[in-house]
Design a protein that fits this description.
globular, alpha/beta, eight-stranded mixed sheet
């Protein structure tokens, strides 16, 4: 079974705003898309055949989660583990994503996606994406390339008709030759701001630390008491620095004596560690990786079994251990996955 369709691909255009990632990768003839497909197919061939049909179905409906599960399975294999998918645990009907057997130690591994997008914001994004695609369906002008910037949404987005009318009115008096010459001289391209009546919706900054804590807390107690080390693997969609992750896990000020982190002597002690990354299909070769060890864990992970960078709490603070990077682990060259487009 293949993950993607075995078809002749000739479409070299970009993804539409409403197109899901799997559909775009499945149809795209871009060299980079081919590079990603080939890599994911190689991962999929190493995924257990008994679980592959369900995973393939999830790629079409829950791409982010399915991709991270496939990525994590391959990562564990490349770290030297024997991996069981959806193992059965004593005392619960719930099944974690993986049981990884490192030389002499078994570790339960659960995947989670951390995002700071609220349901309201995701719904707003879907409306805006539909708006962008509706505007792009008809050519506004054969003489100009029109770039749309962010639209600050209220309770509803403007209609495509209003936006198209606004753009046509603004470019009606422009001479394309004059604009092209000015651009070559380094002048800024013409730009306008469209504002519908009614004002703007408040825009917030995401709190990456709070999102990480919430995602980890949700999974930490899912399986009850465990008889083996337990690691949660987090794909932080918004991207985080290691200091943000450390504060989310260990606490905001001094390690060991703050109660606002995921870990303290009386909280989440069944959790052995958190493996944190930020990865998408096009960034497998350069995605950051780090395993953060819980200093209060009832069952610890052995440090010597993990080849990736690690963070370990010591009396003097956090010690950062070096390890293999993603390019080394996945054996990918710097130029992977190839040109984003090729005319």
């Amino acid at each position: 079974m293949n993950l993607f369709d075995d078809i002749l691909r000739s479409q070299r255009g970009p993804a539409t705003h409403t197109e899901d990632t799997f559909s775009f990768l499945n149809r795209s003839a871009w060299p980079a898309s081919e590079g990603v497909r080939n890599l994911l197919e190689s991962f999929f061939r190493r995924y257990p055949s008994s679980e592959s049909a369900e995973l393939k179905s999830n790629f079409k409906t829950q791409f982010d989660s399915a991709f991270f599960e496939l990525y994590l399975h391959e990562l564990l294999l490349r770290l030297g583990c024997e991996v069981t998918v959806h193992p059965t645990l004593n005392g619960t009907d719930a099944k974690p994503d993986f049981l990884a057997r490192f030389r002499g130690q078994e570790v339960i591994v659960e995947a989670v996606i951390a995002t700071d997008r609220t349901d309201k914001e995701r719904a707003r994004d879907a409306r805006l994406n539909a708006l962008y695609d509706a505007i792009n369906r008809k050519t506004i002008s054969p003489n100009f390339i029109i770039c749309l910037g962010p639209i600050l949404d209220r309770n509803a987005v403007p209609t495509p008709k209003k936006i198209r009318k606004f753009i046509k009115e603004r470019i009606a008096g422009l001479d394309p030759d004059v604009v092209a010459h000015a651009t070559r001289l380094g002048c800024e391209s013409p730009r306008w701001t469209y504002q519908d009546e009614g004002g703007f919706e408040e825009i917030r900054w995401g709190d990456s630390r709070a999102v990480l804590k919430k995602s980890i807390d949700y999974k930490a107690t899912k399986y009850g008491e465990l008889d083996r080390p337990f690691v949660i693997a987090v794909n932080a969609k918004s991207g985080t620095g290691r200091d943000v992750v450390a504060k989310a896990l260990f606490g905001s000020k001094e390690y060991y004596d703050k109660s606002d982190g995921v870990w303290n002597p009386t909280r989440n002690t069944r959790l052995s560690g958190v493996l944190e990354t930020t990865v998408v299909p096009w960034s497998v070769h350069c995605a950051p990786l780090c395993l953060y060890h819980n200093p209060f864990a009832k069952r610890s992970c052995r440090e010597d079994l993990w080849k990736i960078p690690q963070a370990i709490a010591r009396d003097s603070g956090v010690e950062w251990l070096e390890g293999s990077n993603s390019a080394e682990l996945f054996e990918l060259p710097k130029e992977w996955p190839g040109e984003l487009w090729n005319n």
